[in-house]
Amino acid sequence: MSDDDNRSGSQSGAMKVLADRLVREADVTEEQARELITLMGTDWNSLLREAHFLKARHRL
Questions:
Q1: CB proximity list for 56: less than 8 A, separation 6 or greater
Q2: What is the pTM of this model?
């Protein structure tokens, strides 16, 4: 396995862990969580804020 394979594997693993946590704590779908992470990066406070905003917006 090359270094690039290791990096992409660990990145997708990190994405999964972060997305799963966001799904649990903000009650968004896994797809929404992954999209937020892709768009915003991995800053937890920003992700949580935006996920709550997204969830509230869909309740209207």
A1: none
A2: 0.76
pLDDT tens-digit profile of 18-58? 999 999 999 999 999 999 999 999 999 999 999 999 888 87
- Which strand (E) or helix (H) includes residue 49? helix 44-59
Element (H, E) at 12: helix 3-26
Nearest to 26 by CA among 59, 58, 57, 55: 55
Q: In sequence order, what are the residues at sequence separation of 6 or more whose Cβ sits closer than 8 angstroms to the Cβ of residue 30?
A: 19, 20, 23
SS3 29: coil
Report the candidate in 36, 8, 42 with the shortest Cα–Cα distance to residue 23: 36
